[in-house]
Amino acid sequence: MIAEGVRDAQPGEIPARLCGVAVTLLPVVGASVSLRSDGMSVQLGASSDQASYLAELQATLGDGPFLYASEAGAPVLACDLTAGRDARRWPVFAQQVTAAGVRAVYSLPLGNDTVTLGTLDLYRATPGGLTEHELHRALMVAGVMTLALMILPREEDDSGADEPWLGGLATDHDKVYQAIGMIMAQLGVDADEATARLRARAFTQGRTVLEVARDVVAHRMMLEGG
Questions:
Q1: Which domain holds residue 206?
Q2: Is the terminal CB of the chain with fewer CB neighbours within 10 Å at N or C?
Q3: DSSP secondary structure string for all residues of 23-50
Q4: Is the pTM of this model over 0.70?
């Protein structure tokens, strides 16, 4: 089923296609894949607009199961974000995702025993965990995703370029890092503080970090000091 899901796909389509496969194989309503770099996640693909929104929400908040999975290099299964330990562990994240119709999130690390590249995040509409068989399937998809990110070229063209995904993420998310640098220069703060201010502005405005970063880079917005 995994092979069929990516049949005839261009390299750039593989992450989203594999997210779609995960939704077919598992009791989830959405899936997204993100890399994590310098504390900021970079979304590479999603199975739906809802899943894409939830991935951007995690980047905006800078909190949630994906962060712990990428740091620990182990699966983090938040089986009930409506109440109990999971809701208390990530209260703002839990409130936001449940408002979007998701009750459980499973984050699986991408990488190997020594390096974590990012996460495959699975979204479920009802509370509940994964069976041993379902977790095995999810980890299999994560393993294929890791392989794809490491060896697939970014795109196919006539130039014969074979630049891998991890070597050349020239996406709109570069603007996030440009915006962080501009905020550092404007306010005289370090990268962590600049990132926190960018995230806070996005959250208070109900927007994504990427949307606010575009405004900062285009000089349509300037964050105040203090």
A1: 174-217
A2: C
A3: HHHSS-SEEEEEEEETTEEEEEEESSHH
A4: yes
